[in-house]
Amino acid sequence: MIPFPDITPGTVWLVGAGPGDPGLVTLLAHHALQRADVVIHDALVGDGVLEMIPENVERIAMGKRAGRTSPVQETISALMIEHAKAGKRVVRLKGGDPFVFARGAEEALALAEAGIAFRLVPGVTAGIGGLALAGIPLTSKEVPSVALATGHGPDGKLDPRLDVEGLGRSASMLVFYMAIETLPELIARLLKSGRDPETPAAIVSRAALADQQVLTAPLSALCAAAGATKLPTPALVVIGPNVALRGRLQP
């Protein structure tokens, strides 16, 4: 047996659950779930992952789910701190990787400021693992650069700090998280940057889950295809030459 460190009472482990497939949960993440007193998990963590949590462990669902009000970040941080100060072994279970568009940095800072010891357990982010399961490699010898970006800011719109045009000109492969609502503006700005309208593009819906769906189309036609299909969220938008490899690499 691998000698993993135990969770000390009064500490918080920020754990990445991976993109949804329970087979992509790391051994250290599984170890943490088995030894927790309380698991505070994102609402979109896969059911298969949640089934790994022992029945005697308290579960608290937090995080955004479509059509429902999401708790503010301060509420989640306060909850972690409260349980840790009560002497519990706390696991904060986050979809994908805690530090990839998952607010893990904010939560870690809140714990540090409160004097709560914590440990980070990285996870497989959907922008890598989910795309691989969809038959879309993030890199190849023809792809010298990759950009991961969020498709919306705190107000639900494209973050004004995001240089979409710059990314369109510089990165061979583009992966946008949470970009369905902003897709029309996103594509318009990429085309304005000079990106070829025929660039292969895809939407990967519910990546790495049993009901994963993948829609492919040229960049200029992706919005129309997405509107006709109405894919469920969460979804990734991926743009670049390696999307064309899906036909040969699809599992």
Describe the fold and architecture.
The protein has 2 domains: 12-124, Cobalt-precorrin-4 Transmethylase, domain 1 (3-Layer(aba) Sandwich), CATH 3.40.1010; 127-249, Methyltransferase, Cobalt-precorrin-4 Transmethylase, Domain 2 (2-Layer Sandwich). It has helices spanning 27-35, 47-50, 73-85, 104-113, 126-133, 164-170, 183-192, 222-229, 246-249; strands at residues 12-16, 38-42, 58-62, 90-94, 118-121, 146-150, 173-177, 200-205, 213-218, 235-239. It is of the alpha/beta class and 251 residues long. The mean pLDDT is 92. The strands form 2 sheets. Strands 3-2-4-1-5 form a 5-stranded parallel sheet, with helices on both faces. The protein has a 5-stranded mixed sheet with strand order 6-7-10-8-9, sandwiched between helices. Strand 2, helix 2 (47-50) and strand 3 form a beta-alpha-beta unit. Helix 6 packs across helix 7. It contains 9 helices and 10 strands. It is 29% helix and 20% strand.
What is the first-to-last residue Cα distance? 32 Å
Percent of sequence in beta strands:
15-25%
CATH fold category name of the largest domain: Methyltransferase, Cobalt-precorrin-4 Transmethylase, Domain 2
In CATH, the homologous superfamily of the largest domain goes by the name Tetrapyrrole methylase, C-terminal domain
What is the strand arrangement across the widest sheet? 3-2-4-1-5
